[in-house]
């Protein structure tokens, strides 16, 4: 695991947007950030899942979160601009954003990839991330030191048979992260990507249905890197793809 000892309250007074906060790694990141003092904005497509995370945070006496129900597949540039303005109005700034939501699509031979699946995966995993980043950067720059985190994968730096659009979207995610990181290198914003590695989640179960998930690290176990990159300890780290395990 990434070697970082989490400090109590290290995220207090921070407002952090977690995209894809209803399940898997994003759900755990939202709970962890709230436990460390952050006010978390929970964005995702299934409202009930977001409400469950909200309830868990409140039950654990974390700062009251906010919920933004949004499906990245259909969301428009204007939706993200409005969202950024609402966050700026309500919180004054955004200290961190974890771009974690992705879809796997279908694992198929390259010549069998459906055009619709290709388009959906590129829309959710790449174009939505780009539109969100564009809209959120002005609000992130209002914070004294902000962190934007993209999520890649091992297939984002080494192509793999049958992983078609998902793999391509993750290569592009790393490219997008590098472009923004280089452009904002002298600013208060740092931009990086996390490769979580194999982690027990619903997406992993879809990709590897025969696998015994009890042998994999849990989302909770991979949290040290997710906390490090949001905490002030990672100030100055920019343009990197870091492995959570
Ligand atoms: P899950 O599928 O378990 O969770 C993804 C979350 O993103 C869900 O809450 C889901 O919402 C949300 N989401 C998906 N599509 C959309 C959409 N169109 N609009 C809004 N929200 C959406 O994934 P993981 O937790 O496994 O993965 C998290 C990230 O880590 C992803 O970027 C993935 O590519 C990456 N990753 C994961 C690995 C693993 O082993 N788990 C390995 C390498 C990378 P809902 O539940 O409502 O559908």
From TrEMBL:
Pfam families in the record: adh_short (PF00106)
Signal peptide region: none
PROSITE patterns: ADH_SHORT (PS00061)
Keyword terms, alphabetized: Oxidoreductase
Domain of life: Bacteria
Gene3D superfamilies for the chain: NAD(P)-binding Rossmann-like Domain
Sequence similarity: Belongs to the short-chain dehydrogenases/reductases (SDR) family.
Annotated NCBIfam families: PRK08945.1 (NF006509)
Name of this protein: YciK family oxidoreductase
Biological source species: Thalassotalea insulae
Highest classification ranks of the organism: Bacteria, Pseudomonadati, Pseudomonadota, Gammaproteobacteria, Alteromonadales
């Amino acid at each position: 695991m990434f070697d970082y000892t989490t400090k109590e309250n290290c995220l207090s007074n921070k407002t952090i947007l977690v995209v894809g906060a209803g399940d898997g790694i994003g759900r755990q990141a939202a709970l962890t950030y709230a436990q460390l003092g952050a006010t978390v904005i929970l964005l995702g497509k299934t409202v009930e899942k977001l409400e469950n995370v909200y309830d868990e945070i409140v039950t654990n006496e974390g700062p009251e979160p906010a919920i933004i129900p949004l499906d990245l597949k259909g969301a428009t540039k204007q939706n993200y601009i409005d969202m950024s303005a609402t966050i700026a109005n309500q919180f004054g700034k955004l200290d961190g954003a974890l771009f974690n939501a992705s879809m796997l699509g279908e694992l198929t031979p390259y010549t069998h990839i459906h055009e619709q699946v290709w388009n959906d995966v590129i829309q959710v995993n790449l174009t939505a991330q780009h539109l969100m980043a564009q809209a959120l950067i002005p609000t992130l720059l209002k914070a004294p030191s902000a962190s934007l985190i993209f999520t890649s994968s091992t297939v984002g730096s080494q192509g793999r048979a049958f992983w078609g659009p998902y793999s391509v979207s993750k290569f592009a995610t790393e490219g997008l992260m590098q472009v923004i990181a280089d452009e904002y290198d002298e600013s208060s914003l740092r931009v990086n990507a996390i490769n979580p590695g194999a982690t027990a989640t619903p997406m992993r179960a879809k990709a590897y249905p025969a696998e015994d998930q009890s042998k994999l690290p849990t989302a909770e176990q991979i949290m040290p890197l997710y906390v490090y990159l949001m905490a002030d300890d990672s100030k100055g780290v920019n343009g990197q793809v870091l492995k959570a395990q």
